[in-house]
Specification:
By secondary structure, the protein is α/β, with parallel strands linked by helices. It has helices at 14-23, 58-61, 75-87, 106-114, 130-141, 175-178, 182-198, 300-314, 323-339, 341-347, and strands at residues 5-10, 29-35, 53-55, 68-71, 91-95, 120-123, 147-155, 201-209, 220-227, 232-238, 245-252, 255-260, 272-278, 290-295. The strands form two sheets. It has an eight-stranded mixed beta sheet with strand order 8-9-10-7-11-12-13-14. A six-stranded parallel beta sheet has the order 3-2-1-4-5-6, with helices on both faces. Helix 3 packs parallel to helix 4 (106-114).
Length: 356
């Protein structure tokens, strides 16, 4: 195994900086280059040392001798930069979503067939939260039987911070750059968790709107989905949730778990906890005993990169955040868009296809 892996980070906004701070904790990772078209993002950053090169474009960055690239760029660049890095035989960690639209993933599917030894992982960070890990353990144990239904709400109060047109993340409100709104930006995490915990899903109905903020991307989504074994799933993704909310309820044959709140950088989604309920079918009065578990520390960013590092180090296959995961979850997002006939017609949404 190589002693050190040279790392580049494309995109140095909030997520890029956070990834950098986490990567520095790994002695085998050596960040040698960064890029961001907003050069002011590098002003007064004390952690940058003289050995780190700074560029304005990802093309300049890719000319460096990089072993691993972390992609933290706007959605319209994610697939192209992933493709170019894989083409240069560079391992890639790309933030969600994997592309602005599903059709952009075809070239990545093709290049992966030629670069079978390279590792490509997508950043679905929520899977590494302790409450999610506990929920997965309970589901796999089958102690409550089969899942009957799931319902989830993931909502924030605005499309971007303070609705500021000069905000560096304002591109999220522009369809030609982002490809979608709150569902593609935030709700995609909930869809990924629903797939991860409950299995593959298909969209049966949806209602998509942008009536509040009046951008050409959605600010509210309601969707019904159906999973294997006839699991019924309800999703609400919102940018008008005035009190920020993360909530996922999973009902089983003999019990229930609720994921309420999640630790985040904004600290606005409440305390992260899991509520575990065992059904009392003999004396059912609708008020069974519950167990509450709270989580006070978020190690998810470290644990996610640690998993990626171990996969590269041991030359194993990626099982979390795979290309298949990313593609199927992105396709669900666009099937939700597609199933609303008015939204489909308004923005000419195409039915997504899977690339093998």
């Amino acid at each position: 195994m190589k002693k050190f892996f040279n790392v580049g980070i494309a995109g140095y906004g909030i997520v890029g900086k956070r990834r950098h701070n986490t990567i520095k904790k790994f002695k085998h990772f050596n960040v040698i280059a960064l890029c961001d078209n907003n050069y002011s993002t590098f002003d007064n950053i004390k952690e940058l040392n003289k050995n780190i090169k700074i560029f304005k474009t990802y093309k300049q960055l890719l000319n460096e001798h990089i072993d691993i690239l972390f992609i933290c760029l706007p959605n319209n660049l994610a697939a192209e930069v992933t493709y170019q890095a894989l083409k240069r035989k560079i391992h890639v960690f790309c933030e969600k979503p994997p592309a602005k639209k599903p059709s952009e993933l075809k070239k990545i599917s093709n290049i992966l067939k030629l670069r079978k030894k390279l590792k490509l992982m997508y950043g679905f960070n929520h899977r590494y939260h302790k409450s999610i890990i506990e929920a997965k353990r309970i589901i796999d144990s089958k102690q409550f039987g089969k899942i009957i239904h799931m319902k989830g709400t993931y909502g924030k109060s605005q499309m971007i911070s303070f609705n500021d047109k000069n905000h560096p993340s304002f591109w999220r409100t522009k369809r030609n750059i982002s490809g979608g709104g709150v569902l593609l930006d935030q709700g995609i995490h909930m869809l990924d968790l629903m797939r991860y915990l409950g299995g593959e899903l298909e969209v049966t109905a949806s209602n998509v709107s942008n009536n509040m903020w009046n951008y050409d991307v959605e600010d509210n989504v309601y969707a019904l989905l159906r999973g294997k074994n006839n699991i019924i799933v309800f999703l609400n993704s919102s940018a008008t949730q005035w009190k920020h909310r993360f909530y996922l309820e999973i009902n089983f044959e003999y019990g229930n778990i609720e994921l309420d709140g999640i630790l985040s950088g904004t600290k606005s989604y409440g305390r992260e906890k899991i509520i575990i309920t065992k059904a009392d079918l003999k004396n059912d009065r609708g008020n069974p005993k519950q167990i509450n578990k709270f989580y006070r520390k978020d190690n998810s960013w470290y644990d996610e990169i640690n998993y990626f590092f171990k996969v590269i180090k041991k030359e194993k296959n990626i099982k979390q955040g795979t290309f298949d995961d990313a593609q199927k979850t992105l396709n669900l997002v666009f099937m939700i868009y597609y199933m609303d006939k008015l939204w489909r017609k308004k923005y000419n949404i195409k039915k997504p296809v899977l690339y093998s």
